[in-house]
């Protein structure tokens, strides 16, 4: 893969013109877990030097910024001024271009939807080298194909995002133990759905009556003037954990400690917003916990009616495989995304990672089957193993998406390993 790192529009255009037969794909900060931003044998356009903040309107909250600006950089400038991006994924080290191309969601999806809902317009470099300003009303198909479109419609050069005013850079967090999956499901059906933010941490190694036990966190924006636990200073994971540390007994002990750290009656704390939204960002190189062979991530959503049965089967499959997973994450999603390939649907989403052992592909294959049986879908930002057939069943707007690609990029200039694996561009392959 040849990496290009342009700083100006004409350099982006030159990189596109220079791309060979395997095409080119935008690459933000590479925080997608699979191959969405990779292009073996072709070109990748690294966007990190396209990182200028262009304008901000304090009346409307509209920020115009280049695609390589990260959520972390926006927070560094705007948090103390009382503004935040309305949708933040679980790490701040993602670019605006990457956030739009995966139409990312946060712990507030029920209330605030996905990232693309808050984008007023973007400038898109198309396969023919021209730049087009795309709005949801002016070019609804191109907007919906690019939001969640994993970089295949073109390079998003800059975009206009509506930031949200906040009274304080903190949240009031309530943490409660959930003794089982049933406890989680009833909390998510009730009070957690009313909260501004909600997320569950599940111990995937707990079995039988404790299957699906974990901690539920709900949070509300803190009022001005409340003191709060500061965002942590960053620590670094100094080594790759050796394999023996990743056995199910050691990981089960870690998960149990995590569960018991919350008192039986729950607790309430005021936390800095970053600390609440991005817990993993405090540990640089956290992925080294999974050792040299790395790990696989899996995330799916199941529609509301199927969530209870399906999530139970998914957790049971992971537990039985003894895949030694640290905590899994359970969240609710409130509505479909605006993109043709947006991940969200009204339902529950489960995200889990496990060590990259030889049997990991088998487990991922079994999980895909369960998701299909329950009418759900797997998230492309987290995927490295989905089959092309499974993908086509999970994403019902795929034909619409392909029609837009055929119109804007008939020769298939934008390509990626994921697009080839999932046969997304089979019309132009
Ligand atoms: C710890 C962690 C927690 C996470 N939590 C969440 C979460 O809670 N919710 C969630 O939704 N996601 C989550 N993610 C996934 C992450 O938000 C997405 O993968 C995001 O897209 C990564 O952004 P990036 O800038 O690194 O993009 P990359 O991973 O580099 O690229 C992602 C996709 O965007 C495309 N792209 C990037 N820039 C552009 C551009 N300028 N123009 C066109 N296409 C572009 C790429 O081609 C690729 O298809 C998490 C990831 C991590 C590592």
Explain the layout of strands and helices:
Blueprint: E1 2-4, H1 9-18, E2 24-27, E3 43-46, E4 53-57, E5 62-66, H2 71-78, E6 83-84, H3 96-101, H4 109-112, E7 119-125, E8 131-134, H5 140-146, E9 155-162, E10 164-165, E11 170-178, H6 181-189, H7 191-194, E12 197-202, E13 214-221, E14 235-236, H8 248-260, E15 267-272, H9 273-277, E16 283-284, E17 295-303, H10 304-320, E18 328-333, E19 347-355, H11 360-373, E20 377-378, H12 388-394, H13 398-408, H14 417-421
Parallel strand pairs: 1-3, 2-3, 14-16
Antiparallel strand pairs: 4-5, 5-9, 6-10, 7-8, 7-9, 11-13, 11-15, 12-13, 12-18, 17-19, 17-20, 18-19
The chain binds flavin-adenine dinucleotide.
Flavin-adenine dinucleotide is lined by residues 25-32, 36-37, 47, 67, 89-91, 94-95, 97-99, 101-102, 104-106, 150-151, 155-156, 280, 381.
Primary descriptors:
alpha+beta; globular; 28% helix; Uridine Diphospho-n-acetylenolpyruvylglucosamine Reductase, domain 3; 429 residues; 5-stranded antiparallel β-sheet; 20 strands; 8-stranded antiparallel β-sheet
